[in-house]
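#struct-pred

JT: dropping the chains for the assembly here, can someone run the whole complex?
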Amino acid sequence: DTGVSQDPRHKITKRGQNVTFRCDPISEHNRLYWYRQTLGQGPEFLTYFQNEAQLEKSRLLSDRFSAERPKGSFSTLEIQRTEQGDSAMYLCASSLEGRVSEQYFGPGTRLTVT
Amino acid sequence: AQSVTQLDSHVSVSEGTPVLLRCNYSSSYSPSLFWYVQHPNKGLQLLLKYTSAATLVKGINGFEAEFKKSETSFHLTKPSAHMSDAAEYFCVVSGSGTYKYIFGTGTRLKVLA
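RK: done, full complex below.
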């Protein structure tokens, strides 16, 4: 499969625990994006990378959230001290470099905080 | 600031009848516009994109959309609905010096037999 992959697909955690999600983009794509989607809403932008550089972060990305893309390939999104409001689908997407390159989305990681 | 407004949260059509999903956008610059579809428990799939070339854009599965600058609209249409078209559809805007997507709130399409 040459699409965007995400791991895990589902995560249940207790409030206050830390969680980490992984995204593997399409191999030749140098841009990688994270979005969050809550029930009944469209995805909201969190952050994006061009290669290993994190170029833009949303105000939604509080200091409990951190994202990395250390070698410009896969990326991780960590949430520290999870809260019930963090329960959502976390989507990763990747694209080629270019002004109008479309983004290809992974299946998402569904986080449930109990 | 950029935004998109999807005018209908739910649309129901009978199989074989036309589909119209409405989207208005707001952008200070010439935007890139996209339609994505999300089937239950599946990832977002690109249907079509507008990037300032032809104003009538054809996509996959018989969908098309027309960019109308004067109306700031980018409505999605299909001549004949199929049961497999039942899904959530998102209108997306991008551009203005950023590559992030701004999503609409989605339109859930129901296709009746």
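JT: nice. The mean pLDDT of chain A is 93. Chain A has no helices and eleven strands.
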